[in-house]
Structures are given as structure tokens and as C-alpha cells.
């Protein structure tokens, strides 16, 4: 179906203040959507309570309202403007909740303004945990055993039934606020109370914990003709139990066989087609039992999300921009790939690089905060690195954290003994990856680390490869450092500074740079082009790497 | 990737040289260079008989991460001639895996080269087109390699299908099934047969040069013309078989090479593409239903688009949304159809499996 010409003006709802779990990602998606709609000659009216955003710049929309994100503000805007449709899928959970509230009060109907991209029924089905579970069960998609509780007593009863460890997940909250793991009976009361009070409708899901399973996210687009494409598959380095926003994540998926991936893809597509009235970007999360490759659905977000912003940058595919076009009626196969300009937007990006996202925490600024990672997101930002290998990307990411780390390879020496390290990495904390590397440096086996962390051993092998290179560099002086080793170090993401600090004798990063320049080991620049070089790209962006 | 690996060399027909490290079997191998953009399913790709004679570049930067097993194969051995990657992984992670990629390639005597700037290489092939190449981990002198490369035959005009076809007939599925399919094997992928068997068919698979009379003896409800390697224009024997099948007016379904043969049997020429389509993300529009599908593709030859569109007896049913190439045809007035892509996928999306249902419905 081509564009719906009855839509001449659209209201975009922003995501409000920046809080943990909802940051500038939604500014990015809202701005892209505004641009995409105005490209079509549609008048864009925007509401956001946060003036420190790009989307509220006067040139982004035809009219910008800096008002509190409340139903009253919405009414005021609808009163003052002729608005044909509202797009609630760009401003995260906040925008969806507001759209839902306004719907319940009959505001949209009163002003003859329709919801585009998603309808309330679809939002409810996806965002209400119990409805989501029932829906999955009806579709035959496996989920973790769980029950919804609306009171403390109910919660206690269900917890006894399901058994420990379990998860408490409050309904309709941001970034997993109020959620948590309960490993034993003595933690239950507190966790239940916290969860129930965090939920705006005083409701929690008491769910069996699938600790140690692998976690994956699919970012996809669906149009109103039921076409679905997977834009990006993201693998969490950390297994189930750590909020995705607090997990180190990798794209494309590194450890998925095609059989396991196609099962995931098929399930995601079935879910999307059964969602109801929805056109736009969506995120589906799965958990995979590594032993059996059995799959369970964790959740879906029928809107662009924090992960879709990441997926857009990771693949080059502008998810929010295309999602906005789908919301006004276009089908995927009618649109062009914005990067190549010649091929179709209906395709699945292919990557010839690795993306690694590492969250950034600020526990030093929140004295006394519990730095154990879990269901509630605690990071305040993230870095995304691109490399031609996982090792290069993870090192670049660690170099970009703006803390004391110089790559994964150098974060001072751990004062912990081997036993302490093995114990320490059992609990997910912000510095776990650095301590894993310390443990490997001390000779702990990959097997032991996998047992302690449940992180897929492929990732641990990769970190071990970095340790091997590091140890080898440490046996050399700048003069004796062989060309091949220097080349391999650069290809594995070692910075000049890192190499300088590892060498046996004192030298500076400049000296390392001079040596490698003389040897011709210099950066090459590669494109993020959505298609792994299959087609010529017109508007790509670049990253640096090292090649033979 | 370690510092101790042997050096390996890749030489292209146009004289370009790429250096990397040896992986898999030590030796020398030559063939037509091509690239695959898929990010999963390397073992299925390596064992796909359509890749016979080809040296494959994996665009995805890590290959081998989840090892290999005995189930994820499309034939009984590795069919690619050689492998080129950025990072080929020796250490893997998967409970279901039985071996590493390195050991698997060694067992199958496949020479591979890693640590190659595959992106630069792919961009080169994209610009210059398909060509022959040689990789070696034993000969590193470029002049010697040039001499060896000169002996490699050109893919254009090369008949490879009869080499990979089964030598003996064999049967699959329920022998009592009323639904019988005669398969003409030019290098058929295992999952194509599985897709037929899963739909209740009793399948008999025949060698490439089986005469029609023998096919008819099976008294099939329909004929399946398989995928396979090489140039379809170099297979006049197969074109004759397809013509004879068409005269019978029974359902016929062709995939990939089978699609090209159906075109040739209708007098529509095929051509050697600039660098082919190989990957799991190719968008195809079904012109009959108006729906689109993401498809698995692996072909270096195509059906002449102008000739198809002009042909009064053949209808275009599927087109590629990227380059508008012909992805599917059907013969007007006959139950015969074919697609250029791989609806069985493996590896790849299941979007197009409905074609097997269509074929079965046609036979009932």
C-alpha cells in the first residue's frame, strides 16, 4: 500500500527527561522520524518536556511544544492544532504510556486524531506481562513459567509454587525499574514490595529465572502488509540475568548456528504478524538454552527502543526513519535503502565487521550504590565500537570508556588472587570483563571461567587470544618487537599506548607509533554500508581498522 | 589467528595478490572466486554442491565460531574448492558441534586462507566481476602460482553438474505414498529433498543424464529439476530432458540451475552474471500475490530478462527488488514453474517454503 494521503499532520511524542534506561536514543529516533515525515510533506508537531534535545530544535519540527508529558498538554496541543495522527512509537515507554492514558480518557477520539504505527490493543498485548505470556502460550511460543500477582500475598504464594531462583518483574516500568532476582526465601519480601510499588498498576510477574541461558535481541521492521525483516541480531555477552542495557552486547550474533537463528527469526516473525495493528520498528528478546538450543520468548517492545538506536548505528539502516514511513502507510518493498540509494529497503543488512557495545557506569558518583548488575538498569551511557574482529571491537570499546582502562588489556594489575578472582566474576559487576581477563592472565582455564560466569566460551577464547598476544608483547622491547606480532596486536585492537605500557622496557606511545609507521602498519578505513560491500554505497560512514 | 601460522597467498586472475595466513589443509587450490554475505550457516554453504568449482569469500568476519556437526550439511562432503576469510576460527562453542572448522576442512582436504582484507577483496570483485583465483599455503612465489592459475578452466561454458550428481538412483520418503516426485539431480541440496519428503512425497533421485524414459518408469506425479553448479548453457542434454518433461504436462518445479534449464527449454537464453548473488538477504517480490520475501541465493548465471518478458508462453512470477533480475517464471498453460533463489533456504530465511506447498498442491 502506498502512503496514506489523508495524514497531513502528525504529533510525535518525545520521551521527556533523560533518566537511566531512557536517554538520547529517543532523541535520535524522534528526530529521525520528524525528518522522515517532513520529507513527505507532512506537518510535524512535537511535544517533549526536555529542551536539551535535538528534536526540540526549532528546525526539527513545524511546531515544538515544550510542555510536561501529560494528557492536559496533549489536549492543549490538539485544541490549538488540526492534527490527523499521533505517532507514539518514537518516545520509548513514556510516549506509549502517555498515548495509552490519553486513549483511555477518550482524548484521541474527541479530537479525531488517530494513533499510527501501533494501536492500544497491540501495546497492551506486548507491554502487559501477563497478556504477553498468555498470548505466547496461545501461539505455542515457549515462555518461562510465571504468574502475575497483584498483591503481596499473591506474590508470596506464587513464589512458593514456582520455586527459587525467580525473578520479580513489575509491569509497565522503565529500564526494569523495581525488578530483581530472588535467590532465596529471605530476599522475597523486600523484592515483592519493591516491585509492586514500582509498577503504576501495582502488578508484578513472578517468573522462574533462566539463569545462565544466552540472551539475544532481534531488531525488526514490519509493515502493514505483513512484510517483516530482521535488521539486526544482537547477542548479549552476559547471559540472562543482566539487564540488556547493562550488558555488553555484540552484533551480529557470534555464536548462533543457522538452525538456532532461523528458529528465532521464524518465531519473531510469527509474533510480529500476530501482534495486530502495527507498522514500524520492534524489538523481540529471546533466551536460548545453550545445551538444547531450546528457545523462550522474553519480551517484545512494539516501538523503536534503545536497542534499535544501537542497531541503526550498527547496521547503517535508519530504523526510525523507515519506521516513520511505515506508520504513514508505506510498505517496505516500496522504499529504497537509504544508504545505497539503489537497492530495496526491504532486505536484511549484512555486516562485515563486529559491533561491541559496552555500558558505562558511574558508581563512583553514587557512593553506597549496589554495584551488582541485575534486572534494573544502572548504566548511564554506553560506547559502541566497530572492528574487523570481536577482539578489535572490544578493545576499542574499552579504550573509549573514558575511565582508566587502556583497552581490555591494561587496567592496572588486579590485586586479587586467583581464587578471589574466580569468586568475584561469579557476580555480574561493571568490571567483570576486566577481571575475567585478569583471571585468564593468571592462568585460569576457559572452562573454569565459563563455569563461573556462564558466558559463552567463544567470547572467553577471544579474550584469551588477547592475553596470549599481551604476554608475548611483554617479552619484548620496542627494538625486538617483531613486525608480525605488532601487526597482529594492532589487528586485535591494541592501542599504541597499550603496547608501550606492555613492553619490557620503558617507551612511549609515540615511539610505538613511529615504529609501526616505519613498517607500514597504518590504519585503513572501512564503510558501514548495510550490505557488506555487495553494493556501492552513497551515504555510508566509516571506521578505522588494520589489515594486511 | 596466531603469530605462528604459515603464510598463504591469494592470487587473482587479474594479477592482484592478497596475503594471509594458512588455515585448513595445506596445499594449493584454484577456482572461480565469489563471495557470500550470509552471517550464519557456513557449514551448509560449504557443503552445497552448487558451490563446486568455486573459491568462496565469507564477508562475515568470523567463521567457524560454532564449529561443525554432522547434521547441518547439504551433501556428504565439502563442495567449495577453497575458502577465504578474515577470521577463521579454530576454537568454537556449541554443545551440538562435533569438530572444529579447521579439522573439518583438513579432513575434507580444503585449503583456506584467513587474515585477508576480505572487504577490499569483495569490493574488487564487485567492481571487476567474477574471475578465477588461486590460493596456496605451499607455493608462495607469485610467478609459479600464475602458471598454475592459467590451467584453471573458465566457469563460463563449464559443465559441472554431472560431476556432483548422484551416480546411482536412490529413494527417500514413504514408499507407499501416493505422491511421487522424480528428482533430476544436478547437485541437489539435501534440504530440498527434505522439504519434499516433509510434505509426504516419495522421492526418487536420478543421475543428471538419466533419460526421460527412465524417469517416467517411476510414474511420478511431478518432476523436480534441481540446483547445481556450472553453466546451464553447457548442458544441452539436460535442456532436452526438461523439454521432454514439459511435453508430458505433469507438474514441474525447478530451483536455481533447474530454473535456468526451464528457461532454456523454452528458448530463453541464460547469461553469466557480473558477480552473482550469494547470501541470505536478497529481496524478492512475488508478482502473483504481491507479497515479498527475503531469500537465500547462490547463483552466478541468470535468465535473460528481456527474452523472458518478450516470450509469449512464459510469465515472470518473481523479481529481485534490488536489481530487477528475474527470480521466478511459470510456463503459461502448463503446471511448470521455477525460481532462481533457494526456497529450501538452509541456510537462510524460511519465507519462501510455500513454494513446496504450491508444488505439492499442483500434484494432488
Helix-strand blueprint:
The complex is a heterodimer of chains A (548) and B (364).
Chain A: E1 9-13, H1 25-39, E2 43-47, E3 63-65, H2 71-80, E4 85-87, H3 92-104, H4 107-110, E5 114-115, H5 120-127, H6 129-139, E6 146-149, H7 152-162, E7 166-170, E8 180-182, H8 188-198, E9 204-208, E10 214-222, E11 228-236, E12 249-251, H9 258-274, E13 280-288, E14 295-301, H10 306-315, H11 319-327, E15 354-360, E16 381-387, H12 390-399, H13 418-424, H14 432-441, H15 446-453, H16 457-473, H17 483-491, H18 496-502, H19 509-518, E17 524-528, E18 541-545
Parallel strand pairs in A: 1-2, 1-4, 2-3, 4-5
Antiparallel strand pairs in A: 6-9, 7-8, 7-9, 10-11, 10-13, 11-12, 12-15, 13-14, 15-16, 17-18
Helix pairs in contact in A: 1-10, 1-11, 5-6, 7-8, 13-14, 14-16, 15-16, 16-17, 18-19
Chain B: E1 7-12, E2 17-24, E3 28-36, H1 42-46, E4 54-58, E5 62-63, E6 82-84, E7 87-88, H2 101-107, E8 111-114, H3 118-128, E9 131-136, H4 142-150, H5 161-164, E10 170-172, E11 180-184, H6 190-198, E12 202-206, H7 212-217, E13 222-225, H8 236-247, E14 252-255, H9 257-265, E15 270-286, E16 292-303, H10 305-310, E17 314-320, E18 326-331, E19 336-339, H11 354-363
Parallel strand pairs in B: 3-4, 4-6, 5-7, 6-8, 11-12, 11-13, 13-14, 14-19
Antiparallel strand pairs in B: 1-2, 1-9, 2-8, 3-9, 10-12, 15-16, 15-17, 17-18, 18-19
Amino acid at each position: 500500500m502506498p502512503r496514506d494521503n489523508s495524514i497531513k499532520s502528525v504529533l510525535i511524542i518525545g520521551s521527556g527527561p533523560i533518566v537511566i534506561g531512557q536517554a538520547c536514543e529517543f532523541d535520535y529516533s524522534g528526530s529521525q522520524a520528524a525528518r522522515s515525515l517532513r520529507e513527505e510533506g507532512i506537518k510535524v508537531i512535537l511535544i517533549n518536556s526536555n529542551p536539551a534535545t535535538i528534536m526540540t530544535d526549532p528546525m526539527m519540527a513545524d511546531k515544538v511544544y515544550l510542555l510536561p508529558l501529560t494528557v492536559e498538554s496533549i489536549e492543549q496541543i490538539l485544541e490549538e492544532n488540526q492534527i490527523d495522527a499521533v505517532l507514539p512509537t518514537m518516545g520509548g515507554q513514556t510516549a506509549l504510556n502517555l498515548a495509552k492514558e490519553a486513549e483511555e480518557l477518550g482524548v484521541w477520539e474527541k479530537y479525531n486524531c488517530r494513533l499510527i504505527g501501533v494501536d492500544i490493543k497491540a501495546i497492551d498485548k506486548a507491554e502487559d506481562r501477563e497478556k504477553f505470556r498468555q498470548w505466547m502460550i496461545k501461539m505455542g511460543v515457549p515462555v518461562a513459567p510465571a504468574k502475575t500477582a497483584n498483591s503481596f500475598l499473591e506474590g508470596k504464594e506464587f513464589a512458593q509454587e514456582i520455586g527459587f531462583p525467580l525473578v520479580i518483574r513489575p509491569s509497565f516500568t522503565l529500564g526494569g525499574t523495581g525488578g530483581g532476582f530472588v535467590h532465596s526465601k529471605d530476599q522475597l519480601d523486600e523484592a515483592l514490595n519493591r516491585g509492586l510499588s514500582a509498577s503504576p498498576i501495582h502488578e508484578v510477574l513472578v517468573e522462574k529465572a533462566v539463569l545462565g541461558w544466552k540472551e539475544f535481541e532481534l531488531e525488526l521492521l514490519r509493515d502493514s502488509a505483513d512484510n517483516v525483516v530482521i535488521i539486526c541480531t544482537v547477542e548479549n555477552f552476559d547471559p540472562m540475568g543482566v539487564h540488556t542495557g547493562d550488558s555488553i552486547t555484540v552484533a551480529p550474533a557470534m555464536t548462533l548456528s543457522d538452525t538456532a537463528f532461523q528458529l528465532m527469526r521464524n518465531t519473531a516473525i510469527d509474533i510480529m504478524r500476530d501482534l495486530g495493528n502495527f507498522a514500524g520498528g520492534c524489538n523481540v528478546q529471546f533466551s536460548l538454552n545453550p545445551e538444547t538450543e531450546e528457545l523462550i520468548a522474553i519480551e517484545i517492545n512494539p516501538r523503536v527502543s534503545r536497542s534499535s538506536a544501537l542497531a541503526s548505528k550498527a547496521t547503517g539502516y535508519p530504523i526510525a526513519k523507515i519506521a516513520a514511513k511505515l506508520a504513514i502507510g508505506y510498505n517496505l518493498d516500496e522504499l529504497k535503502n537509504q544508504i545505497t540509494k539503489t537497492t530495496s529497503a526491504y532486505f536484511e543488512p549484512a555486516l562485515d565487521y563486529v559491533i561491541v557495545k559496552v555500558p558505562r557506569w558511574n558508581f563512583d558518583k553514587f557512593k553506597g550504590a549496589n554495584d551488582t548488575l541485575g534486572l534494573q538498569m544502572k548504566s548511564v551511557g554506553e560506547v559502541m565500537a566497530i572492528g574487523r574482529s570481536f577482539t578489535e571491537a572490544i578493545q576499542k570499546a574499552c579504550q573509549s570508556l573514558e575511565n582508566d582502562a587502556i583497552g581490555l588489556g591494561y587496567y592496572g594489575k588486579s590485586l586479587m588472587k586467583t581464587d578471589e578472582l574466580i569468586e568475584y566474576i561469579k557476580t555480574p559487576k561493571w568490571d567483570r570483563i576486566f577481571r575475567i581477563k585478569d583471571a585468564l592472565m593468571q592462568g585460569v582455564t576457559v572452562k573454569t571461567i565459563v563455569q563461573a560466569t556462564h558466558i559463552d566460551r567463544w567470547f572467553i577464547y577471544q579474550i584469551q587470544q588477547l592475553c596470549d598476544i599481551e604476554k608475548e608483547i611483554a617479552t619484548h622491547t620496542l627494538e625486538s618487537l617483531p613486525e608480525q606480532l605488532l601487526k597482529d596486536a594492532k589487528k586485535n585492537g591494541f592501542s599504541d599506548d597499550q603496547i608501550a605500557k606492555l613492553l619490557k622496557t620503558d617507551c612511549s606511545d609515540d615511539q610505538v607509533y613511529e615504529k609501526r609507521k616505519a613498517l607500514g602498519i597504518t590504519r585503513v578505513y572501512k564503510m558501514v554500508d548495510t550490505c557488506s560491500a555487495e553494493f556501492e554505497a552513497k551515504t555510508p560512514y566509516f571506521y578505522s581498522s588494520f589489515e594486511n | 589467528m596466531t603469530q605462528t601460522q604459515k603464510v598463504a597467498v591469494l592470487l587473482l586472475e587479474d594479477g592482484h595478490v592478497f596475503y594471509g595466513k594458512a588455515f585448513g589443509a595445506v596445499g594449493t587450490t584454484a577456482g572461480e572466486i565469489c563471495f557470500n554475505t550470509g552471517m550464519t550457516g557456513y557449514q551448509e554453504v560449504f557443503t552445497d554442491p552448487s558451490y563446486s568449482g568455486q573459491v568462496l569469500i565469507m564477508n562475515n568476519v568470523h567463521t567457524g565460531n560454532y564449529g561443525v556437526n554432522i547434521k547441518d550439511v547439504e551433501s556428504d562432503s565439502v563442495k567449495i574448492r577453497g575458502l577465504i576469510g578474515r577470521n577463521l576460527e579454530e576454537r568454537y562453542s556449541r554443545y551440538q558441534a562435533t569438530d572444529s572448522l579447521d579439522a573439518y576442512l583438513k579432513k575434507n582436504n580444503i585449503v583456506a586462507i584467513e587474515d585477508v582484507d576480505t572487504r577490499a577483496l569483495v569490493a574488487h570483485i564487485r567492481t571487476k566481476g567474477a574471475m578465477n583465483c588461486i590460493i596456496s599455503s605451499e607455493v608462495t612465489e607469485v610467478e609459479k602460482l600464475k602458471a598454475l592459475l592459467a590451467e584453471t578452466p573458465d566457469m563460463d561454458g563449464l559443465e559441472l553438474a554431472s560431476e556432483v550428481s548422484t551416480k546411482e538412483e536412490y529413494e527417500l520418503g514413504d514408499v507407499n505414498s501416493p505422491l511421487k516426485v522424480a528428482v533430476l539431480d544436478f547437485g541437489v541440496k539435501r534440504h530440498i529433498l527434505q522439504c519434499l519428503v516433509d510434505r509426504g512425497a516419495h522421492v526418487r533421485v536420478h543421475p543428471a543424464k538419466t533419460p526421460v524414459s527412465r524417469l517416467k518408469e517411476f510414474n511420478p506425479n511431478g518432476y523436480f529439476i534441481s540446483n547445481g553448479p556450472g553453466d546451464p548453457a553447457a548442458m544441452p542434454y539436460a535442456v532436452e530432458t526438461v523439454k521432454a518433461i514439459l511435453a508430458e504436462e505433469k507438474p514441474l518445479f525447478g530451483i536455481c540451475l533447474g530454473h535456468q534449464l526451464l528457461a532454456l527449454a523454452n528458448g530463453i537464453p541464460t547469461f553469466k552474471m557480473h558477480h552473482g548473488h550469494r547470501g541470505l538477504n536478497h529481496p524478492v517480490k512475488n508478482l502473483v500475490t504481491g507479497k515479498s520475501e527475503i531469500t537465500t541465493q547462490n547463483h552466478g548465471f541468470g535468465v535473460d530478462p528481456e527474452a523472458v518478458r518478450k516470450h509469449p508462453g512464459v510469465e515472470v512470477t518473481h523479481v529481485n527488488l534490488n536489481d530487477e533480475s528475474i527470480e521466478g517464471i511459470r510456463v503459461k498453460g502448463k503446471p511448470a514453474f521455477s525460481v532462481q533463489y533457494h526456497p529450501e533456504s538452509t541456510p537462510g530465511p524460511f519465507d519462501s517454503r510455500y513454494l513446496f506447498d504450491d508444488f505439492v498442491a499442483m500434484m494432488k
